[in-house]
Amino acid sequence: MTFRCVLLGLCVVVASSLGCNTGPDLDEATPIIALPMPNSPLVTIRIGFRVGSVHDPESQKGLNAVTALMMGRGGSTTLSYEELTETLYPWSASLSAQFDKEMTVLIGEVHRDHLEPFIDILRDLIVTPGFDEADFSRNRDFLTNSVVSTLRGSDDEELGKETLNALLYDGHPYGAPVNGTEEGLASIALDDVRAFHASHYTKANVIVGIAGGYPDDFGERIQREIVAELPGGGSTATTLPAVSALEGREVLIVDKEAIATAISIGFPMNVTRADDDFYALMVANSYFGEHRTFNGLLMNKMRGQRGLNYGDYSYIENFIQDGGSRLPLSNIPRREQLFSIWIRPVPHHNAHFALRQAIRELEVLVTEGLTETEFEASREFLLNYSKLYVQTTSRRLGYHMDSSVYGTEYFIDEIQRRLPALTVTEVNEAIRRHLQFDDLAIAVVTSEAEVFRDRLVANEPSPPTYNAEVTSEIEAEDLLITSYDLAIHPERIQVVPVGQMFRR
Hints:
This protein is an alpha+beta fold. 39% of the residues lie in helices and 17% in strands.
């Protein structure tokens, strides 16, 4: 498939995909995804590179993250980081770096009155970063603290998600956190960053998006002053190995002092936005576990009816929340995806029950599917809710860039085109093709690691404890849940102290 966008007022075809191993012809101009808005005073620029943590050397996990931050939170050869921030502040302009497994993007926003000097700064940061020793130490320390103090220390929810990721992708380039590992970051020197930037941040790997009230010749300027100045090198596209198949239910319990138990469940699923079934699965997932809404079945049954915890959600692709927004982040495309369930921390005494309930509800979804009424309601909600994905110009531009990478038409338009044509039969068939409940990775973060392990091994009933009365209908359903057979063999349960996570 191809994606059509506006290039300097003309319609062109961007032919690219995550699975493509060749970059654009270096003798040709890099296509620019352009969203002109002549009446807007704001200009948004996204300079993306098909580079991410999958390109980190095995002994230097975090190298791409450090490199990205040296551009997004560092100085250039002409301005120190302090001078840069002092310059941008009165313009109310912003510059940031975002990085994931397979894409890194530098994001700039500025009022068009300050566009000229802003582009000079952006060019210098991307093409000729300062690579200052103080900037390097500051950014590497920041990433190290994100692993040691935040991930292993204070953020049990994120720790659970990363533990699930590590379990699913053991020995795979996706296995390490995008921010790196403790020992990997410690092994990185400034010269490593310089070399990585020169070999990976190249013309062959770049994708450019511009939006807002920019002048007519702005695209040519980006081509001339930024893209053309990048190193020539070839594409650094990688071939990803196959993800190891799960055999039954595998559990990794992280032993950590925690006030509640965080649980993440998932399995690899090779369905991306480039696949027709993705849109049917969107409807199914919205019904089952839409992120941070009470529409999802998991949220209704676990929090709404039982008050077990704060939130319970599911996902059909990697999901990173966009700051305080409930909406997914753009510019994190991946060739490999996963289905996952996120059970926000639940009191220790109800954790075994919560795990049982989540997996049992997944089994019901797979075996019974959606009714016509459930399908119609979920589809209608998603048709309207998805329009909120692009409530800012920057978001809209990011989703256009993602569609270019996946080689599809514009994602939001595809949702609006495909969902009305779906039937409940197609959704249920997609569920049966791609979702399952037998072969699961289960990540648990708890201070009762050995107790939880013993409960799983014994497989004894786990009746919940409530602080308020529940209905007779819920009591009857609880009798089925509390004895639900998780069928987890003892040899498939690991207990790991938190201090051993994400070291190498």
